[in-house]
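During the reporting period, our protein records have gained a structure token line. A sample record is set out beneath this paragraph:
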Amino acid sequence: MAINSNHLTGFVVGVGAAALGFYFYKKNQPMVDAWLESQGINVGTSAAGPDLASLSTKDLISEKERLEDMIAEREIGSGETPKE
């Protein structure tokens, strides 16, 4: 089966529709996320973690230990030697 102009047209239209949908989602993200959560879908935040500036010293130490544990697990899993 050869690729013809209908395939290319469909691909371009699909990419355009996806880009347009993403644009409108990002423009209305708080409203869309609130609607999704009201439907029972937990959207959460993608990359945003806790606001480190507002954490207490005890919470910062806990976060540091959690990150150190994650680093150690990855180093063990990949066979790397710990870098100090």
The chain has a mean pLDDT of 87. The chain has two domains: 1-43, 51-84.
